[in-house]
Each structure stands twice: as C-alpha cells, then as structure tokens.
Amino acid sequence: VSSDLVINGKMESMYGWDKAWGDGGMIAQKKDGSFAFYYPIRHWVPDAEQIQTAVSNYPLVLLSGTPRTKEQMPVSDPNDYKFWLSVRRSGLGLSADGTKVAYVSTVGTVEDLGRALLNAGAANGFALDAGGSNGLAYQGKAIFTLGRKLASVITFR
C-alpha cells in the first residue's frame, strides 16, 4: 500500500510529504478505541497524538456518502489511468458515525469501489491496492491469492 502512517504521534510518508502523491484518506483507531476518518491528509492531522494506529491510501473513492466520479478525481500520477480499468479492487471505509469499518472487494473501477463501500455502510473510504496486489482470506481460507510476492496485510478481529 502506498500509504502514510501515524507512528508515535508523528505522521510519516513513505515518500515524504513534499513528494507525496495521490488524493486519499486515512482511517485511524484512536487510543480510546474509537475510529476517525481524515481527509485531506496532505497536512498534519490535528489530533495525531491521540491516534493508536492508522492506514491511508489513495484514491479517495467515497466522501460524505457520495462515490467520487472520474471527473472529481485529480490526476496525480501517470499511472492513475489504471483507476478506470475494470479489475479486482479492495477498499476501506468508515461509517458516518465512526462505529463501523468496512472492507470490500469487488471487480470494477474505483467509482464502482466507492459504490460498493457505500453499500457496505461506509460514508468515507479509499482504495487499497488492486489487480495482482489484491488478495483475500477469510477464516484461514484463501478466497483469492495475490499475484505478487509483495504484500501489505490488514487484519480484522
């Protein structure tokens, strides 16, 4: 995942904020156990010292209950054309009240992914990796496997 993280209350980017790309969001679990969605994340998160762990990625596919369309998405990188190919995709979203984290996997474009997150109860959400970088296991069984040997893992309990 080409993401940014909060580590010990400090925002870190794998590229550095001056070189960060993409228009994404962040889902964070705070130290009190609650969840919050942050957008935009290009600038400092005001309450980062209260965050236990967080994950972010781009593109943002769902904002305030509305799936983003191709016309609404900024082009940040030459590879952004891939967002409009129909491939296996996954995404994370958070409900409006912050009580439900949704993970979805679907085949389609990033706009389709935004609609799938909305249908799963999310109000805001972003894409994770897609295509050969996308795998899913449930209760110890692989639903589909990665096409690559490089993986980021998000687990739910």
Walk me through this protein's architecture.
The protein is mostly beta strands and 157 residues long. 6% of the residues lie in helices and 39% in strands. The strands form four sheets. It has a five-stranded antiparallel sheet. It has a three-stranded antiparallel sheet with strand order 4-3-5, with no helix packed on it. The protein starts with a strand and ends in a 13-residue tail after the last strand. The model has no long low-confidence stretch (mean pLDDT 79).
Total of DSSP H or I helical runs spanning 4+ residues: 1
* Oligomeric organization of the protein chains: single chain
The whole-angstrom Rg is 15 Å
The portion of residues forming beta strands comes to 35-45%
Mass-distribution shape: globular
Helix content: under 10%
Distance between the termini: 20 Å
Poorly predicted runs of 5 or more residues: none
Helix and strand run = EEEEEEEEEHEEE
Mean pLDDT: 79
Profile the largest sheet.
5 strands, antiparallel
- Placed side by side, the strands forming the largest sheet appear as 7-6-10-8-9
Number of strands: 12
Q: Which structural class do the helices and strands define?
A: mainly beta
Brief summary:
The protein is mainly beta. It has one helix at residues 110-119, and strands spanning 4-7, 10-13, 25-30, 35-38, 51-57, 60-63, 66-67, 87-94, 101-108, 124-130, 136-138, 141-144.
